[in-house]
TrEMBL record:
Sequence ranges assigned to domain FAD-binding PCMH-type in this UniProt record: 105-296
Taxonomic placement: Eukaryota, Sar, Alveolata, Dinophyceae, Suessiales
InterPro entries linked: BBE, FAD-bd_PCMH, FAD-bd_PCMH-like_sf, FAD-bd_PCMH_sub2, FAD-linked_Oxidoreductase, Oxid_FAD_bind_N
UniProt organism field: Polarella glacialis (Dinoflagellate)
Keywords: FAD, Flavoprotein, Membrane, Oxidoreductase, Signal, Transmembrane, Transmembrane helix
Name by which UniProt lists this protein: FAD-binding PCMH-type domain-containing protein
Family per similarity comment: Belongs to the oxygen-dependent FAD-linked oxidoreductase family.
C-alpha cells in the first residue's frame, strides 16, 4: 500500500510540475474570468523599481521605475522574446514587468499579477488553483538576473514588489525586530536601519530581496558574528497553495483558510524548517518576514591588495592554502570578501583584493594578528576603507598593472543576458567548509588559474568569507534546525568562479571554458553548493543544496503535504523535474500514471484478500499437524 502511495506522490511531484496550461489551451480561463479576477483585486497604487538589465553597476536610485502599473499583465500573442536590446525603455510593458531577461532559455510567464495586499495574494492563489494553472513567484527578481530560476514557461507569475510594509519594533536591550513586506530589497532596509541605529543581517549586494535571500539560507558580511538569514528570522507570513494565510514561527503556526474567519493553530514546525533554507518559491507565497534588528556593533574595515606574478600552479597552491589558513584564523570575528583575478597580459599575474571586516577595534590583538599575517606572510598592502569597494580597488590595481584605462568589471551577476540561463551567477560555485579536503580545494582552484593563464581567458575567483556563522559546528540533516547542507551551514567561505565577457574571447569560447574546464574542476572538489548562488545545470543539485537523501525526502514530504498538486514551482526547487536531462512528460501522462496506480491498488487489494485466506489455511494446516 505504502508503495502505491509513494508511487502516486512521485507521479504528482514528477509529472505535475512541468507543463503549464497556457494561453490558447483549452484549460486557459476565459477573458471574462480574467476580468472578474482582476476586478476583485484592490485598487491600491502599484509602483515598482526594476533591475536594469545589462546595467548591473547602475546605482539603485537610477534604476528604472514604473508608476501606476496594471494589476494584471497578459503576454501579447505576438510577444515571443524580450530584451533583444538591453534597454529597459525599449521593452514592451509585458517584458518590463515579467523580467523575461533570458531569451536563450525560451521561458516566459503567460501572465504577471501584482497583488497589493495579503487578500490579493489569496485571491490570486485561489484563482490559479481553481483554474489549474501553474504559479510562480518573484520578489525583486535577483535570481532572474543571477540565474533565471524562478520563472516557469506559461506560469501565472505573482510579483510581490508592491508589498512594501516596514515596521520597526526597537528594543533597547536586544535591538528589537523589523517586519518587512516581501517586495522590499535590502537597500531599502539598510537605509531605514541606519536611521533606526540598528543592524539587520542581509545580502552583501543590497539589491537582493528580503525573501528569496532567506529561502536559500541567506549569507551576509555579518554572518560570522550573527548567523545566516535562517538564524535571524523570527516570523514568516505566507499564503499557502490552498489559499490559507499562514503565520509561521519557531514554536508552530496559525492559519486562516481563504474566506474563513476562524484561525487554527498547530505546533508543527515543518514549514518553519523547510522555509529556512529549503529554497525558492515552491512552498507558498511569502508576504512578509520579521528579522532581528541588532544593536550596532563596532566594526573595523580594511582592504588588502597584492599582485602575485604567475609562477605556476604549484606556487598558486601555496597562496590558496595560505588563504584557507588565514580564513580559519579569522573564525567568526571577521568577514572577508575577496577577488582573485587572472591577468593574461602583458605578463601573467594574479591580482588579489580583499575587503575585511573585523567585529571589534583595530587595536584588538585578533585584528592586529590578521593584519600582520597579510603584511608579513602575504607581503600585501593594507589600506583603510574610504568608501571604496573591492571592485573599484581592483579597477585601479588592474589599470596600474596592465597600463590599461579599461575598467575591469568584477561583479556577481553576469554581464550579458545570453549567458544567464546556463551559467547563473557564476560559472561554478561551491562551499569550502570545516570538513573540505584542503589539498583537493587548492588543487582545483589552482588548476582553474593555470587553465586561464594557458588559454589566455581571464577568470575571476570570488571568495565570500561570510559563512562560519555562529560559534562552533552546526548540526545538519533531517532532524537539524534547518535543511541546509553541511557546507552551507558550516562553510568557511564560498567560492564563485566567473568567466567574464572579455575582448578576444567569443561567447562560444567563454561557454566552452566555463562548462568544460571550470565547472568540472570545482564540482568535483566541492560537495556543497549554496542554493541561491548556483550554476543552472548542476549535477546532483538536491544533495549539493541539502546534503543527505533523508533531508531531501523530508523536504519532499513537506512539499507534498502543503502543495499536493504542485501548484508552485521553480528551477532546482523541491518538486522540480524540469532538468534538461529528464524528457518532458505530456500532462496526460499524469492521469495515465494515476489511473495505473489506482488499477494496481485494486489488484493488490484483491490479491491480499485471496492471499490472506491461503495464509490462514496454511497456518491452520500447521496447527492441525
Ligand atoms: C548581485 C547579487 C548579489 C547577491 N549577493 C548575495 C549575498 O550577499 N548573499 C546571499 O545570500 N545571496 C546573494 N545573492 C543571491 C541571492 O540571495 C539570490 O539571487 C536570491 O534568490 C535573491 O532573492 P530575490 O527575492 O531578490 O530574487 P527572486 O528572483 O525574486 O526570488 C528568488 C527565489 O525566491 C523565490 N521567492 C522570492 N520571493 C518570494 C516570495 N515572496 N514568496 C515565495 N517565494 C519567493 C522565487 O520564486 C525564487 O525561487 C546575490 C545575487 C545577486 C544577483
Amino acid at each position: 500500500m505504502m508503495f502505491f502511495i509513494l508511487l502516486w506522490q512521485t507521479c504528482l511531484l514528477a509529472f505535475g510540475t512541468d507543463a503549464c496550461c497556457g494561453p490558447g489551451d483549452e484549460c486557459w480561463p476565459t477573458q471574462m474570468a480574467w476580468n472578474a479576477f482582476e476586478n476583485s483585486l484592490s485598487d491600491a497604487n502599484r509602483n515598482y523599481t526594476f533591475p536594469p538589465i545589462g546595467e548591473a553597476r547602475a546605482p539603485f536610485d537610477q534604476w528604472p521605475m514604473m508608476l501606476n502599473m496594471k494589476k494584471v499583465y497578459h503576454r501579447p500573442a505576438n510577444q515571443t522574446t524580450c530584451y533583444e536590446e538591453l534597454d529597459f525603455a525599449k521593452q514592451s510593458s509585458f517584458c518590463k514587468v515579467s523580467t523575461a531577461n533570458k531569451p536563450a532559455a525560451n521561458v516566459s510567464p503567460a501572465v504577471v499579477i501584482w497583488p497589493a495586499s495579503v487578500s490579493d495574494v489569496q485571491k490570486a492563489v485561489d484563482f490559479v488553483r481553481r483554474n489549474r494553472l501553474c504559479l510562480c513567484v518573484v520578489g525583486p527578481a535577483n535570481s532572474e538576473s543571477s540565474r533565471g530560476m524562478s520563472t516557469r514557461n506559461n506560469c501565472a507569475l505573482l510579483r510581490t514588489g508592491v508589498l512594501r510594509d516596514m515596521d520597526w519594533e526597537p528594543n533597547d536591550k536586544t535591538g528589537g525586530s523589523v517586519r518587512l513586506g516581501a517586495g522590499l530589497r535590502f537597500v531599502e532596509v539598510y537605509e531605514a536601519a541606519e536611521n533606526q541605529q540598528r543592524l539587520v543581517v542581509g545580502g552583501n549586494c543590497p539589491q537582493v530581496g528580503v525573501v528569496g535571500w532567506l529561502l536559500g539560507g541567506g549569507h551576509s558580511a555579518y554572518s560570522p558574528a550573527y548567523g545566516l538569514g535562517v538564524d535571524n528570522v523570527l516570523n514568516i507570513e505566507m499564503v499557502s497553495a490552498n489559499g490559507s494565510a499562514v503565520n509561521i514561527t519557531e514554536g508552530g503556526m496559525s492559519f486562516q483558510d481563504f474566506g474563513r474567519a476562524e484561525v487554527t493553530t498547530s505546533n508543527s514546525t515543518d514549514l518553519w524548517w523547510a522555509l529556512r533554507g529549503g529554497g525558492g518559491g515552491t512552498w507558498g507565497v511569502v508576504t512578509a518576514v520579521t528579522y532581528k534588528a541588532h544593536l550596532l556593533p563596532q566594526v573595523t574595515e580594511f582592504f588588502v591588495q597584492a599582485i602575485f606574478p604567475w609562477l605556476g600552479e604549484a606556487a598558486m597552491k601555496i597562496k590558496l592554502a595560505l588563504y584557507y589558513d588565514v580564513s580559519k584564523l579569522m573564525g567568526d570575528k571577521f568577514s572577508m570578501y575577496a577577488a582573485w583575478v587572472t591577468v593574461v597580459s602583458p605578463e601573467p599575474a594574479i591580482l588579489f583584493v580583499a575587503e575585511v571586516r573585523y567585529f571589534g577595534s583595530n587595536d584588538d590583538d585578533a585584528c592586529k594578528r590578521v593584519r600582520n599575517e597579510f603584511l608579513n606572510v602575504w607581503k600585501a598592502n593594507i589600506s583603510e576603507k574610504h568608501n571604496n569597494t573591492v571592485m573599484s580597488v581592483l579597477d585601479s590595481l588592474y589599470g596600474a598593472y596592465t597600463g590599461s584605462d579599461d575598467p575591469i568589471f568584477v561583479a556577481l551577476e553576469p554581464t550579458t543576458p545570453s549567458l544567464y540561463s546556463e551559467f547563473g551567477s557564476a560559472a561554478a560555485t561551491g562551499m569550502v567548509d570545516l570538513r573540505t579536503d584542503k589539498t583537493e580545494f587548492v588543487r582545483a582552484v589552482a588548476a582553474c588559474f593555470g587553465a586561464s593563464i594557458r588559454e589566455g581567458i581571464v577568470i575571476q575567483v570570488l571568495f565570500f568569507n561570510t559563512w562560519t556563522g555562529l560559534s562552533g559546528e552546526q548540526a545538519v540533516g533531517a532532524e537539524a534546525s534547518t535543511p541546509l547542507a553541511y557546507g552551507t551551514r558550516n562553510g568557511i567561505f564560498e567560492i564563485g568562479v566567473k568567466v567574464p565577457e572579455q575582448r578576444g574571447v567569443t561567447e562560444d569560447e567563454n561557454k566552452h571554458f566555463s562548462a568544460n574546464v571550470v565547472q568540472p574542476l570545482l564540482n568535483n572538489a566541492l560537495a556543497s553548493v549554496y542554493f541561491s548562488e548556483t550554476q543552472y545545470l548542476l549535477p546532483d543539485w538536491k544533495t549539493r543544496y541539502w546534503g543527505s537523501n533523508a533531508t531531501v525526502r523530508r523536504l519532499e514530504q513537506i512539499k507534498f503535504a502543503w502543495d499536493p498538486e504542485s501548484l508552485l514551482g521553480c528551477r532546482n526547487c523541491i518538486g522540480d523535474t524540469s532538468d534538461h536531462r529528464i524528457p518532458p512528460w505530456p500532462p496526460w501522462m499524469f492521469w495515465i500514471t494515476g489511473a495505473l496506480a489506482f488499477f494496481c491498488l485494486v489488484l493488490l487489494v484483491m490479491y491480499c484478500l485471496r492471499g490472506g485466506g491461503q495464509v490462514k489455511d496454511g497456518y491452520e494446516g500447521l496447527v492441525q499437524q
